[in-house]
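Record 1 of the preview.
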Amino acid sequence: MGARCLALLLLHGTLLLPQLPLAGAATRYYTFNVKLQNVTRLCNTRAIPTVNGKFPGPKIVTREGDRVVVKVVNNIKDNITIHWHGVRQMRTGWSDGPAYVTQCPIQTGQSYVYNFTINGQRGTLFWHAHVSWLRSTLYGPIIILPKAGLPLPFTEPHKDVPIIFDTFRLKVQPGKMYLLRLINAALNDELFFSVANHTLTVVDVDASYVKPFDTDVVLITPGQTTNVLLRAKPTAEAAGATHLMMARPYATGRPGTYDNTTVAAVLEYAPPGHIKSLPLLRPSLPALNDTAFAAGFAAKLRSLACPDYPSNVPRRVDKPFFFAVGLGTTPCPGSNNQTCQGPTNTTKFTASINNVSFDMPTTALLQAHYTGQSAGVYTADFPASPLEPFNYTGTPPNNTNVSNGTRVVVLPYNASVEVVLQDTSILGAESHPLHLHGFDFFVVGQGTGNYDPSKHPAEFNLVDPVQRNTVGVPAGGWVAIRFFADNPGVWFMHCHLEVHTTWGLKMAWVVNDGPLPEQKLMPPPSDLPMC
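->
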């Protein structure tokens, strides 16, 4: 429960405006009590970790420019951290949340105060646990409204309607506009989403505005958010049918590694009719492995790139990287006769970037960096490209074993960075949603097959590329991102499929301080949890 069927949230935030001051930045205070709560879903009741007894958890509502202060109190037996997914955390890496990267976990009976400011973002993000697999039930939305007095760059919507897939029913009025905030908080499933007989207009992704475009289907990977406008049909004739809102996986990996089920909610027109007697309209969703749709949808995403919302994409590159991402193997532990559940009798699945499967430390990386005591915690020798290049989307190499280590990349402050993320066909090509903490990046190019450095950069979009914090590396293809390393600290980068993160598809960037006071990492808070 919670792994997928309740993990696609849809919310609308317009009517939250009166709850917030109309001028100036403010500080929003929240308390998150993490505790076990009996929750019933789909006729099944069990005790699960929750925040304040709610599943999904409470929403945070704020404006661009506001400060958010959240006290997290751990009342369960498991250690806990909370990650504010997509929040830039400018100079406040201590509040980012990934366990053993920016902090040690909050132990049972202890608390920690996360303190950060929303900078240059508006739209939808979300929070979730960032230790073990606890984010399966510990997650909730972050609604970021524009600064007071700033209009939306799209049609003002009509009404506030929170929607949670289960057996939810959304009632709409003919002719009215609704803003749906989609959050894919699933552990392992990319999702297609559609509403029967209705067109959706995409206006925002990952808390960044985009050039609006219409679509019947939205693709959203774990870790991504998408805001869409839905205009209800103009006449009451639409009340003559019940419209299903449906989501199901987009899956390119090995069979059995994803939840091949479809979840649905109901959209109906007011006044409500007798739903059982009305015809039921179902949306048409792409095939389970429709990579062509995935590529086409991604290509439509463009930033506004206007004076009010410029596209500050790096035009030059100081630090180029080529990361081969995918699965691999490692020998089964123990004796030579031991077997484990892997691709062969003597190997188990693992995952890596540039053949390095990341080992989590037992001391927080940020603490080691800040104190200058990185020896024995991490090494600054993560490879900028594969040490042994191969045909990444062709015949895999004979040796599929990977190396292990806690290896990072160190960047000077404000360096312009380009990362080409190349999927590999080792143990099968599949899409990987890569999430970068501490930054938004620009998706300047993508394609199928192997990346060609002599050809593809000439095709990059440096005018209006979409700005994101999570991007799907195409199955059997590549994607190129650029960003400025303007945020000092230690920042996690990992696949947002939980199983792949567990297997080691992750790494970290260390960004050094700049010369000016406002370019330096803030000191750690006094209540920072210690390992």
